[in-house]
């Protein structure tokens, strides 16, 4: 029987590696690799609420962001290898802890396995929404394969020009790939749906953009594209907690070796408001100063 890991084309890189034997570009084989499973309080309010999002952090990543703050897990250096049965147990454990949803962070590279796990959980009566938290460097067909499995999509739209996608994330073709992926997500979840008597999302799409230094114009173009294309069908989340690693960036990428200024971020949020965005989130006060990175210490795994 054909196995999607045999000659891997799960992500746009289509590296063709047999992940049953070797690791792909993503630094992972075909076995689930998880670094943390716990309630996460720092997602958007419609996702975390006051109870938290039941977040599963997968190790490995198919991007190559030079500014990555999670290198220990994105490079597959930290984590525990688990079975499909254990992941299903984790879903139920997070539900017992009061999670609003199951938040699959960087689950893109394990989509074939994740589909099976969600199906197994639902066969056992699991009823929380499943959320895919993704960079959007994911094939449109892969997103299509998740229809009926994923209830909420939380994609990034990192770039609007491929030059920057290649320079900072080694992700050729990112812009068109992300546009197609997000379009498919919205096709599946065209209207935000919330739980009765609460502000917690049950179905929908929230697109994130992390403002980077010197990229204000691009950020505004991204907001324009998202709002002109989808209007109020989606929520737009504008983030400003970019935190550079000065030792990594200082020589080759000095132009992004600083935090975003208050002016830059206010200019972006004002622009979003001026063009009519109302379904959106911005970061204010202390949230603007935090990077929201938990300890990848195998909690809950």
TrEMBL record:
InterPro entries per UniProt: Aldolase_TIM (IPR013785), MJ0674-like (IPR040085), Pyrv-formate_lyase-activ_prd (IPR016431), Radical_activat_CS (IPR001989), rSAM (IPR007197), rSAM_sf (IPR058240)
Span of domain Radical SAM core: 56-188
Note accompanying the cofactor annotation: Binds 1 [4Fe-4S] cluster. The cluster is coordinated with 3 cysteines and an exchangeable S-adenosyl-L-methionine.
Residues noted as binding [4Fe-4S] cluster in the record, renumbered to the chain: 61, 65, 68
GO MF terms, alphabetically ordered: 4 iron, 4 sulfur cluster binding; lyase activity; metal ion binding; oxidoreductase activity
Matching Gene3D superfamilies: Aldolase class I
PROSITE patterns xrefs: RADICAL_ACTIVATING (PS01087)
Pfam families: Radical_SAM
Protein keywords: 4Fe-4S, Iron, Iron-sulfur, Lyase, Metal-binding, Oxidoreductase, Pyruvate, S-adenosyl-L-methionine
Known cofactor(s): [4Fe-4S] cluster
Stated family: Belongs to the organic radical-activating enzymes family.
Protein name per its UniProtKB record: Putative pyruvate formate lyase activating enzyme
């Amino acid at each position: 029987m054909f196995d999607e890991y045999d000659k891997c084309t799960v992500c746009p890189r289509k590296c063709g590696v047999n992940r049953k034997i070797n690791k792909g570009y993503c630094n992972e084989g075909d076995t689930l690799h998880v670094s943390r499973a716990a309630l996460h309080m720092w997602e958007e309010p419609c996702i975390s609420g006051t109870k938290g999002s039941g977040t599963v952090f997968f190790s490995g990543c198919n991007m190559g962001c030079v500014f990555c703050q999670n290198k220990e897990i994105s490079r597959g250096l930290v984590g525990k290898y688990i079975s499909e049965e254990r992941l299903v147990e984790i879903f139920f454990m997070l539900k017992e802890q009061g999670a609003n949803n199951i938040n699959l962070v960087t689950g893109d590279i394990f989509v074939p396995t994740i589909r099976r796990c969600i199906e197994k959980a639902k066969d056992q009566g699991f009823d929380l929404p499943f959320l895919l938290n993704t960079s959007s460097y994911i094939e449109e067909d892969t997103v299509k394969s998740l229809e009926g499995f994923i209830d909420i999509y939380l994609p990034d739209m990192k770039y609007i020009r491929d030059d920057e996608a290649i320079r900072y994330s080694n992700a050729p073709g990112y812009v068109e790939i992300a546009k197609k992926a997000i379009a498919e997500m919205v096709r599946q979840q065209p209207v935000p749906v919330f739980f009765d008597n609460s502000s917690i999302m049950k179905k929908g799409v929230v697109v994130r953009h992390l403002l980077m230094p010197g990229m204000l114009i691009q950020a505004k173009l991204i907001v324009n594209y998202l709002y002109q294309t989808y209007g109020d069908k989606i929520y737009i989340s504008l983030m400003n907690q970019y935190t550079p690693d000065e030792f990594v960036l200082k020589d080759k990428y000095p132009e992004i070796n600083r935090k975003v200024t208050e002016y830059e971020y206010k200019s972006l949020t004002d622009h979003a408001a001026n063009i009519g965005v109302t379904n959106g989130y911005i970061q204010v006060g202390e949230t603007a100063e935090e990077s929201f990175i938990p300890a990848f210490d195998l909690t809950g795994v």
